[in-house]
Amino acid sequence: MDPALGVLSIAAYLKRALPNVCVEVIDGNIVEQEDIAERVEADVVGFSTTICSYTNALKLAKIAKTRGSKVVFGGGYATSLDDVILRNNPWIGAVVAGDGEQAFALFGDGSQLESIPNTDGTAATT
Q: In terms of pTM, does the model score above 0.85?
């Protein structure tokens, strides 16, 4: 699946599952990193990463964490390196492997990490 379609699918799912939650999708291929950095502030911030976007996603994740957000990574690149990402980047709370719709809805609903599917609750640091 195209990474942008995966994020849009998650956003659509969240709007149905959690109608009172504000969902915003920001495309890092279109919006400048500085502009994204100014807007990254929410209870939960998620990144769908590729090998090309990974470094910028890490920088933005740090900013989000310092503003009090729970940070979640997903996408093919993050899925393949979940243990490495969590071990080397303590500001990332979890990596969602595979489909993220249900997992991200549970993050948004405040569920405990250990109960969220497609995440490694023992490796994650929230």
A: no
